[in-house]
């Protein structure tokens, strides 16, 4: 109840760039609500306890499970004196408040069907007067969104002022707020009755079981939905079941669908469907016996399981390498389930002839192009369905050969979406042509052109006299270095390499033949060499939403050492490799290489040596292919949308991936 | 902590005069009258006080960006500025004959706007671009676009050091390319629409300051001590609004060598009856323990979420970070620039003259850069007219703005 808080809500609508004036009409009467003491009286008591919002949130209601930052905002906002200490106090306070009203077990045991999940959160959100107009934007500007919320929750008479302000904002918001006002006005009338009820509830709270509490909440929601549907909130208020009577215990499951309008239900279903499509396929866990057996029965490639198994990585596919290749290449002409082009690419992946994410992805897409060209729809079948099934078969074959990289997964999702988006009235040759051209466009735009753009961006960060370090082999980094050399920048390159693949040697050879000044070293010496380095350029296999870089094993080490030496780390990655999932460690998602590769040291007569190693039960070899670098070690990501910080990956995924994949 | 707060508060209240308390009561009645009290008040910021004129040794090497700032600080007289401009414009007239007139026009226009002390550089740039539209004889949107592009390129190349100039140009070009003539029936209405927008942008820039001032009010609590570095119009507005809102707070000003920005700011603040203490630039760490928050403006907000600001900001942010004090940045959204400096040397340096009072031997080198880059991890929040943002959101906004 601080009289100073009034005009804070004005810049509520966020506009980007140019925007017309949002001037609240000056003649708006200011609500007379400064009943509290003079302004100089510092409110050192906890603001939540004395704010009227406490009366509105019934203690039996489970607070809406919002995104963490939102919750933080909403709690931080009501603090009239938001000094750092006050903020902390507030948070602690709130946590204490939660213990009573929110039982995590409750939500775990919640029996509501998943289809209503979205609705639940939405309803409870509007109940708290918190309307997300644009999820990301509001969560981003936290005090702004927070003010909105507190203003509305606080007191009913305040809603008038809100509406007056809202009249200048856009129409949609106004509607929402108008309805809010109705609702709150109704609440205001029942305020008098509330404290008594609340006391009752509090005493009962310990006794009410989880199911009962759930039932109460459900009933409240139902009542609200009905009130909304009828439009006149008075009728809704009267028909509202008394929430604080645990004796009533209605059957919430049956009641709720009756009240909710069918339209919203339909929408919820469609939202759910969309969401299911959004969710990327979960990786197969190879320590799940039954699923592995099932997959084996279907598989084309006969794999022998590796004897060398590391406990922590049992969930990853682990097979002996190399023994199935002759067998597979012999029956290349006898197979008809797999298209020969796809088969060839699979074998190339298996043998390691194609390496590098971009190359693998392009090879796969070209194979698919060929396969689609040769495809004819069987009679009595639908092209969309049948082709998708065919592609799925190819993909699972490729997975058997070598686990897919994240970028390939993205490309496959793109292709499947293209198939799904095909107009129904298209004839078969037309559909095939359009698919092939779409694949070609993807390769050109998302991979080849993207690389060119990245090179243009990254070159601006190379100045004369710099020492650039790169790890392993990345074709984008190679392009950048060559281009910078071409335009006459004077710089030196340090190539850091690692066993067993020694990909850096390929890069070294190419750079040296073009006349670049190079230093070649192994990763063991990275902390020594880092002292003279001014920039680190890294390639990427994928970048996840939390900014985690998923790249060749050893990258994290290089990035961390660079960070310790405060050398900027620049990651070059095409936007099609961004992944909307979040990665926290390099255990969950990884790939196992050939364990023999690290056991066998070249240039050493180690036949006997390896033999003793093979038979040793206490010895296991772990040859991981990838590792994950946390976002804080990355200074910048150069992508085809420009140079961005690692925190902006979700923005790119949100803004640009949708159009390619999901619409 | 509670006790401490209360103690400082009583102490501060003793400091504050009775007169101010009386004014406070008057204000409260005004508050009741209108919610949009602050926005209604016309900006009556007095012109910056003139201080002693410092003679400059070599005006040619001074970046134009710095000239603007100096002009706004009232350090240099306007005719000196005109001379300097004449000197700077010489190389520009040697562009190809047809383009020369146009480019000359743009820069003239820009300089005309730039001289107004209350007008931000980005706004001046946009006004200059509007003048280009007004003067152009283009008949299609495409032609106009090309013309504007040319004008913005000349403006940008004229002063490479100014971030807000670049950002303003980019923003306007962006706006023009997004406003296609298809939306309107004919080209002329689209053109007038663009002009209208350009005019409005000036108002918006003033309003942005007010919005930022209001947003930041919740962060200035009674009894707090604010450390301010540099002379930023936004920060001044924030503190002014806080004083008008009867917040009881104290301000520590860094001296801001060599322009004495802190002296100017403390002058302004003392006029508003805000208790001010002037610090040496080197005394920041010494007095950081009594500081509750650091408030700085920004010349530019870059894509990483870091800021480019007057020299010394980085080290203050480092000290504040190591002592766990929040660093708040007040910046209008038109200062957001698509730049991504990786380190201090990764930007075009804005050079300035430095007076040491004694003669410096010729062999001694002097660091003359006028600004530094503060990485985002040392900033707590950015107060912009888009709302209060964490540094990582800046990139989000920029991506939406420019892509």
Account of the 3D structure:
Chain B: One of its GO terms (molecular function) is translation initiation factor activity. Chain B: It is found in: Cytoplasm, Cytosol. Chain B: InterPro entries: eIF2B_alpha/beta/delta, elF-2B_alpha_N, IF-2B-related, IF_2B-like_C, NagB/RpiA_transferase-like. Chain B: This is Translation initiation factor eIF2B subunit alpha. The complex is a heterodimer of chains A (663) and B (403). Chain A contains 29 helices and ten strands. By secondary structure, chain A is an alpha/beta fold. Chain B has two domains: 104-206, Four Helix Bundle (Hemerythrin (Met), subunit A) (Up-down Bundle), CATH 1.20.120; 212-354 and 366-402, Rossmann fold (3-Layer(aba) Sandwich), CATH 3.40.50. Chain B is globular. The N and C termini of chain B lie far apart (47 Å). Classes of the chains: A alpha/beta (663), B alpha/beta (403). At the A-B interface, helix 4, helix 8, strand 10 and helix 29 of A face helix 1, helix 2, helix 3, helix 9 and helix 10 of B.
Please give a handful of descriptors for the protein shown.
heterodimer, A: alpha/beta, seven-stranded mixed sheet, three-stranded antiparallel sheet, 29 helices, disordered N terminus, B: 403 residues, alpha/beta, Four Helix Bundle (Hemerythrin (Met), subunit A), Rossmann fold, 2 domains, 10% strand, globular, translation initiation factor activity (chain B), Translation initiation factor eIF2B subunit alpha (chain B), cytoplasm (chain B)
Shape of chain A: globular
- Rg of chain B is 22 Å
Helix content of chain B: 40-55%
Please identify the structural class of chain A as seen in this structure.
Answer: alpha/beta
Q: Report the mean per-residue pLDDT of chain A as an integer.
A: 68
How many E-type strands of chain B?
10
Structural class of chain B: alpha/beta
Give the termini separation of chain B: 47 Å
Radius of gyration of chain A: 31 Å
Instruction: Give the ordered list of helices and strands of chain B.
Output: HHHHHHHHHHEHEHEHEEEHEEEEH
Please count the beta strands of chain A (DSSP E, at least 2 residues each).
10
What count of helical segments of chain B does DSSP give? 15
User: Stretches of chain B where pLDDT falls below 50 for ≥5 residues?
Assistant: 15-60, 74-103
Strand order of the largest sheet of chain A: 3-2-1-4-7-9-10
Profile the largest sheet of chain B. 7 strands, mixed
Mean pLDDT score of chain B, rounded?
74
CATH superfamily of the largest domain in chain B: Translation initiation factor eif-2b, domain 2
Q: What is the tally of helical segments of chain A?
A: 29
């Amino acid at each position: 109840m601080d009289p100073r808080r009034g005009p804070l809500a004005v810049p509520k609508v966020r506009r980007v760039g140019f925007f017309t004036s949002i001037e609240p009409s000056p003649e708006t009467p200011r609500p007379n609500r400064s009943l509290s003491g003079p302004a100089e009286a510092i409110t050192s008591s906890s603001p939540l306890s004395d704010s009227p919002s406490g009366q509105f949130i019934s203690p039996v209601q489970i607070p809406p499970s919002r995104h963490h930052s939102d919750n933080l905002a909403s709690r931080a906002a009501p603090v009239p004196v938001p000094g750092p200490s006050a903020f902390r106090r507030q948070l602690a306070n709130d946590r204490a408040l939660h213990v009573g009203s929110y039982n995590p077990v409750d939500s775990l045991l919640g029996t509501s069907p998943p289809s209503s999940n979205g609705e639940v959160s939405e309803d409870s959100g509007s109940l708290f007067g918190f309307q997300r107009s644009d999820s990301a934007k509001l969560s981003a500007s936290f005090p702004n969104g927070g003010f909105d919320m507190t203003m509305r929750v606080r007191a009913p008479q305040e809603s008038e002022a809100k509406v007056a302000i809202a009249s200048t904002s856009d129409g949609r918001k106004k509607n929402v707020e108008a309805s809010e006002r109705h609702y709150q006005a109704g609440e205001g009338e029942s305020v008098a009755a509330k404290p008594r009820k609340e006391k009752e509830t509090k005493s009962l709270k310990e006794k009410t079981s989880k199911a009962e509490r759930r039932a109460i909440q459900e009933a409240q929601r139902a009542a609200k939905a009905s009130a909304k549907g009828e439009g006149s909130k008075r009728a809704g208020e009267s028909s509202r079941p008394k929430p604080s009577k645990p004796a009533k215990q209605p059957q919430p499951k049956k009641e709720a669908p009756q009240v909710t309008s069918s339209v919203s239900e339909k929408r919820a279903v469609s939202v759910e469907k969309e969401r299911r499509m959004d969710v990327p396929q979960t990786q197969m866990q190879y320590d799940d016996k039954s699923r592995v057996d099932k997959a084996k029965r279907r598989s084309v490639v006969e794999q022998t399981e590796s004897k060398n198994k590391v406990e922590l990585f049992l969930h990853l596919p682990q097979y002996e390498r190399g023994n199935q290749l002759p067998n597979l290449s012999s029956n290349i002409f006898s197979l008809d389930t797999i298209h020969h082009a796809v088969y060839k690419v699979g074998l190339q992946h298996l043998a390691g002839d194609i390496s590098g994410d971009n190359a693998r992805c392009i090879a796969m897409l070209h194979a698919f192009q060929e396969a689609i060209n040769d495809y004819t729809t069987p009679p009595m079948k639908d092209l969309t369905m049948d082709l998708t099934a065919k592609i799925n078969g190819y993909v699972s074959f490729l997975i058997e050969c070598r686990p897919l990289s994240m970028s390939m997964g993205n490309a496959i999702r793109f292709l499947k979406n293209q198939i799904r988006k095909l107009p129904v009235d298209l004839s078969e040759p037309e559909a095939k042509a359009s698919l092939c051209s779409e694949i070609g466009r993807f390769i050109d735009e998302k991979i080849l052109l993207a690389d060119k753009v990245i090179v243009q961006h990254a070159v601006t960060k190379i100045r004369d006299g710099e020492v650039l370090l790169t790890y392993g082999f990345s074709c984008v980094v190679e392009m950048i270095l060559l281009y910078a050399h071409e335009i006459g920048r004077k710089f030196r390159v340090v190539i850091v390499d690692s066993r067993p693949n020694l990909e850096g040697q390929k890069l070294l050879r190419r750079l040296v033949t073009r006349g670049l000044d190079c230093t070649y070293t192994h990763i063991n010496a990275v902390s020594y060499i880092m002292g003279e380095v001014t920039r680190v350029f890294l390639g990427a296999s994928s970048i996840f939403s939390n900014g985690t870089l998923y790249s060749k094993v050893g990258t994290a080490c290089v990035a961390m050492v660079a960070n310790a030496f405060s050398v900027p780390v620049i990651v070059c990655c095409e936007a099609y490799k961004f992944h909307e999932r979040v990665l926290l460690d390099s255990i969950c998602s990884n790939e196992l290489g050939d364990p023999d590769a690290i056991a066998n040291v070249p240039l050493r007569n180690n036949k006997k040596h390896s033999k003793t190693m093979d038979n040793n039960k206490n010895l296991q070899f772990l040859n991981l292919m990838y590792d994950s670098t946390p976002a804080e070690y990355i200074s910048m990501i150069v992508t085809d949308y420009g140079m961005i910080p690692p925190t902006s990956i979700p923005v790119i995924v949100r803004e640009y991936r949708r159009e390619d994949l999901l619409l | 902590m509670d006790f401490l707060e209360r103690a400082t508060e009583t102490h501060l209240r003793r400091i504050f005069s009775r007169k101010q308390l009386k004014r406070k009561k008057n204000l409260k009645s005004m508050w009741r009258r209108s919610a949009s009290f602050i926005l209604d008040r016309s900006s009556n910021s007095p012109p910056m006080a003139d201080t002693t004129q410092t003679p400059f040794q070599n005006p040619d090497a001074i970046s134009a960006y710095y000239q603007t700032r100096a002009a706004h600080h009232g350090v240099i007289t306007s005719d000196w500025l005109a001379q300097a401009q004449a000197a700077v414009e010489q190389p520009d007239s040697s562009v190809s004959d047809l383009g020369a007139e146009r480019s000359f026009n743009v820069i003239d226009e820009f300089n005309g706007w730039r001289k107004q002390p209350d007008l931000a550089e980005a706004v001046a740039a946009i006004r200059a671009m509007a003048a280009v539209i007004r003067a152009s004889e283009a008949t299609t949107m495409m032609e106009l676009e090309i013309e504007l592009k040319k004008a913005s390129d000349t403006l940008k190349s004229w002063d490479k050091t100014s971030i807000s100039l670049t950002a303003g140009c980019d923003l306007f070009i962006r706006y023009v390319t997004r406003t296609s003539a298809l939306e309107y029936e004919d080209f002329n209405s689209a053109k007038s629409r663009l002009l209208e927008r350009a005019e409005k942008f000036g108002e918006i820039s003033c309003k942005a300051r007010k919005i930022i001032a209001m947003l930041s009010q919740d962060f200035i609590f009674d009894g707090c001590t604010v450390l301010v570095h540099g002379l930023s119009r936004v920060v001044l507005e924030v503190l002014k609004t806080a004083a008008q809102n009867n917040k009881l707070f104290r301000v520590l000003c860094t001296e801001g060598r060599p322009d004495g920005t802190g002296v100017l700011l403390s002058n302004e603040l003392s006029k508003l009856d805000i208790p001010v203490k002037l610090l040496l630039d080197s005394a920041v760490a010494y007095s950081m323990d009594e500081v509750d928050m650091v408030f700085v403006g920004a010349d530019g907000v870059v894509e990483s979420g870091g800021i480019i600001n007057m020299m010394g900001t980085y080290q203050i942010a480092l000290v504040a970070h190591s002592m766990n004090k929040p660093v708040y940045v007040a910046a209008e959204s038109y200062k957001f620039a698509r730049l991504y400096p990786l380190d201090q040397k990764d930007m075009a340096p804005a050079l300035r003259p430095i007076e040491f009072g004694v003669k410096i031997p010729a062999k001694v080198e002097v660091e003359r850069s006028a600004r530094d880059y503060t990485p985002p991890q040392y900033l707590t929040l950015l107060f912009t007219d888009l709302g209060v943002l964490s540094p990582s959101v800046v990139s989000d906004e920029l991506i939406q703005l420019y892509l």
